[in-house]
Amino acid sequence: MERQVVVIAGPSGSGKNAVIDALLERSEKCSLLVNVTTRPPREGEKEGVDYYFFSVDDFKRGIETGSILEYRYVPSLGTYYGTYKPDLEGRIAKGEVVLAHKDIVGARYLKEHYNAVTIFLLPESIESLERRIRARNPGMSSAELAERMRMVTREVEEEAPHYDYRVVNADGKLEETINNVMAILKKEGYTLE
What we know:
Largest sheet: 5 strands, parallel
CATH class of the largest domain: Alpha Beta
Radius of gyration: 17 Å
Shape: globular
Strand order of the largest sheet: 2-7-1-8-9
Number of strands: 9
Strand content: 15-25%
Helix content: 40-55%
CATH architecture of the largest domain: 3-Layer(aba) Sandwich
């Protein structure tokens, strides 16, 4: 069976979006899984492109009917996020390599049910990641930064070991990181051309 689903994960500021964007640009076979959420769209976000935007009732109905395969609830945001089966299955049916940006729960589900390879992007150090987060959010309070860093440390220490691959995305070495990820996918039998 040809492999078609890839999970690319990592803490905030690890470069996962930059890696995903590069894979989408370099391979016409790659497409991005569009998740479902209960949060309202932000300015400029499009239905079916950025997310599928559901009410909480519709989201819960999706869980019951099986159209939402796995999900998580973020209490601090009061928001649900999940994997939308019609989007995933539609991309697989078209023969696409589906790139999924998921946490550990989603990664485990996609590995078990869709034979996904899971890749976790790591910073070269927690300090370099803190610099990236500060640079992206200059107005962030020290309490918010401390909470972010606590989450990052937990992800790196507790979740990263459960992924198939851990790839360091060092500062200024994004091209090298992208090449490493592409080499992993080729080695694992994904068709990128």
